[in-house]
Amino acid sequence: MDKNKRLDLSYSQMKWETIFKRLLIVMSAIILLLVVGVFFTLIVESWPSIKSLGVKFLWGKVWDPVNNIYGAYPFLIGTLLTSFTALIISIPFSYAIAIYLGEYNPKGWLSDLLKNTIELIAAVPSIIYGFWALFVLVPEVRKLETAIHVTPYGVGVFTASLVLAVMIIPYAAALGTSLIRMVPSPLKEGAYALGATRFEVIRSVILPYTRSGLFAGILLSLGRALGETMAVTVLIGNTSAIANTFKDIFFGPGNTMASVIANEFAEADHALYLSALIELGLVLFFVTVIINLIGKRIITKYTNN
Amino acid sequence: MDARIGIRNTKSILFKSFIIFLAFVVTLPLIIVLLYIIKQGVMQVNWHFLTHVPAPEGEKGGGIANALVGSLLIVGMSSLVAIPVGILAGIYLSENPGTKLSYYSGLCVDILQGVPSIVMGIVVYFWIVKPFGFSAISGSIALAIMMLPIVIRSTEQTLLLLPPSLKEAALSLGVPYHRVILKVIVPCGFAGILSGIILSIARIIGETAPLLFTALGSNYLTTNVRGAMESLPHLIFTYATSPYDDQHDLAWGASFILLMFVLILNIVTKLITRKWKIQL
Amino acid sequence: MENTVVSATNFNAWFGDNHVVKDVTINIEKNQCIAVMGPSGCGKTTFLRCINRMHELIPGATAKGSLKLYSDEIYTMNPIYVRYKIGMVFQRPNPFPNLSIYDNVIAGYKLNGLKVPKADLDNIVQKSLTSAALWNEVKDSLYKKGTFLSGGQQQRLCIARAIAMEPEVILFDEPTSALDPISTSSVEQLFHELKEKYTLIIVTHNMQQAARVSDKTAFFYVGELVEFDDTKQMFTAPSDVRTQNYITGRFN
Questions:
Q1: Predicted ipTM of the assembly
Q2: Is B163 on the interface with C (CB under 8 A)?
Q3: Chain A residues within an 8 Å CB radius of C114
């Protein structure tokens, strides 16, 4: 190829190079704009509610759209109760999986099988868990409730928490596993050399060393639990009134922020009602974002050290 | 002395058994759910089920053709949007670490990953449904946004694993930057990027919440992407909570199909990543 | 100075605030094999990477001064054209893992999307591989992946890839430092044949190598070009005391 032709080509290629580089910048700017857009949309659309209800929206105990009274308290309670119950149930299992896959059996087919199975738990769509639980778990819970003498609703906070617990196990377990595998072996060997048993090494070397990382895993699980919608919507019973006793709140029907949006958004027939629902979405967005960012921050800090 | 060592060893063994027990017990609920869905669903699935729309309420028969076509269309359109944007943004993040834009974009990817899907549904409702009405397109946009973080992160992480010498080799031959990226870097990381894409599809195909206020649902078999459209997860949701047994049957069948999609996509991802590791 | 191919006049290069190449002035003549030597961190690799403008790809890297290919200022030329005219071989063999041996040789054409008739490509592949003394070893496995070759073969494949573009100059950045002694000597033998057609600039750590293969040697020390002379002259009677110290091993 002669020199001039090749030079011409080079210049047209330079032009494409610049266009391509700009395209890359535009694409990552889009991600930024998306998040900013989500944030602004939520704020703008919930502004009527923020303005007229103020902060007391958050602890208003009554949610009564018919009379235009909006208080988020029942949903805050519902969300926190389901999420933390689920979290408490899930922690021993997540830790056990992390310790087993990270320390006892990090390699081999059995380890791979268990790891893939746990990952599959996160892959099954949430609506399928909800559907299954509605037909299989709810009758069982009803029997249990009759046995312990509470009103046998079947659906409710407790049932939702059970299913939620299973659904969030993989997140903390996966992170925990990789962190426990990263514990430097000289540390462990040092303890073994002093005559420690495996249990003692896990308790006094591995767990303290991975503590902040395991905590981050729990935060990620919590973030999932708070925002989980479909399974909870199907199972929680959808009641916006709060029962009088803790027993009734815990075993009886309730609502979470996500489930009340899923149920009532489409039928919100006046501006303030819709706006109040979006404010719930805004709160949910804030809380999950903060929890996730803290979790990620801990992980980056941890893996960089 | 010996006795104490014995006690400590027993403790260690007991602890191990306890851990193993807890770790494997977790698989039980999954297995129970899978078996139950398969048992309930497999009987429903036949040619009629796949090619007909649901029968009117209270009547026997019918199928889920509308949801099947809808899901494929909606997920297809999401992929069309999310894959190019996600790959290009992932390339930017891996190529320009340390710039302000990549820091904030990276942060936003983390944020997007954590946004509850129902919130995404609300936002897209205001962006697209409110001005243009309920449509399959609006559902696709919501799902595309949910795909993005997975595609971006998998692209970024795959490309970061490639040695920088590869890029230098191509550049030193007088190959322009865009061709270096598209003809060398992306093909070399193809398997990793592909597995991210498949994983993201597996995730959104079962998403219900973002579709509640966007694609909505429809009893008709339609390919009009500017109108409301049924999807598998949405059909399961509506029929699961309906009082009719026939509709429950449709929902079980749909659950089975959806589950198979998700399982296959996950297995394919596993196979690709396994092969990819050997190549590295 | 009609024979001058690459010339630098008061040429400087930086990484951020770090001044790594200082006021280098050098004339490199056609069809010669130039060795560039010096202790680690002396700026020799940076200087080499300036010649085909690979230096600027590192964030924060800058350069100033005159650097010419024939009569054209390299830093006002189109960088893509510069790199097409000046080939480069790297420290570690880096064939494209996704391409066959055949496609690796013509990677410069293929990746640029240049339309070249198949017969011409076959010709280029055979000629380049022959020049890189690799043809006989790979002629029956041209369509296997390049990464299946041994380290020395891979490096010669990378040389063939550079030759295929018919550059004026080929830059070598410590081309044998990742190779075993046998592969090293096979690559070194190549240099003697390659300089018939091309101008070679070789950065090397290895003084014996510089003595064996080069016509002229440039000695860099903390960013400065200390001495540039006939290799024989340099190794027998260096004019600068720093060169002498380096050659006699009184550094590092």
A1: 0.93
A2: yes
A3: 1, 9
